[in-house]
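ingest -> validate -> predict -> emit
validate: passed (alphabet ok, no gaps, 281 aa)
predict: started
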Amino acid sequence: MRFYKYHGLGNDYIVLDPADIGSLLTESQIQLICHRNYGIGSDGILFGPLETSTCDFAVRIFNPDGSEAEKSGNGLRIFSRYLWDKGLVREKPFTVFTQGGKVRCRLDDKGRSISVEMGKVSFESDMIPVKGPLREVLNEKIVLDGEELIFCGVTVGNPHCVILRDEISPEETKKWGSVIENDPRFPNRTNVQFMKIIDRSNIRLEIWERGAGYTLASGSSSSAAAAVAFRLGLCDSQVLVHMPGGELEISISEDYSISLTGPVTKIAEGTLSPEMFSHVL
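emit:
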């Protein structure tokens, strides 16, 4: 079974091509491949390219726990770089179908810089989804360990909970990330971002990904947080998102369509040994 591994600002994915492996992997196989000790180790698996009648390409995105993600900004940039390396795309823009909607991708700098048009964001509770009456989920309260936090809900094709803080840290993110991810008000669970506003052009994030845990960078999280900052009037439409793994450029249009741009680095390619799958997690 051939694999191809890339990272986008430290957020790493393994690409598995259906042409190389045939059938879709089971949940336990996905968990094993993504495991940092018993497998290759990654923040997820990109399964594609798949056949589609509506786009140039299609991909399915799986989290390390075996669940499926609707969309991933870093994952889509990595998948685009894989298509470039295989000679399937060049500088001309192309479309990719995901479970969270169609996106448009473009590569520059010999495939090392990739832009993804992520689509329109929504703050509507039924779209995210967030339980309760129909509303825009803005500046709502969540109480953790007796402390009241302010959050905004947003979807970029997948759900996000953006929490505004004066200061952010990995320790706080790891402490509360799983609790918020699994809070009952989010019926499909949620990705979590702790956001600090630096100035009108810069924000800083710490990120907890649904189904993956603490992560160094995230494209959809960057898109969601920048959209919240813009919606609240805290930032302009061009935002540089600073994360532990590096920086992403986010552009927000008047209708809240999001475009992100950032680098991708190839790590390795090789063959997974059948012996690996003899271990059961």
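Residues 73-85 form the longest helix (13 residues).
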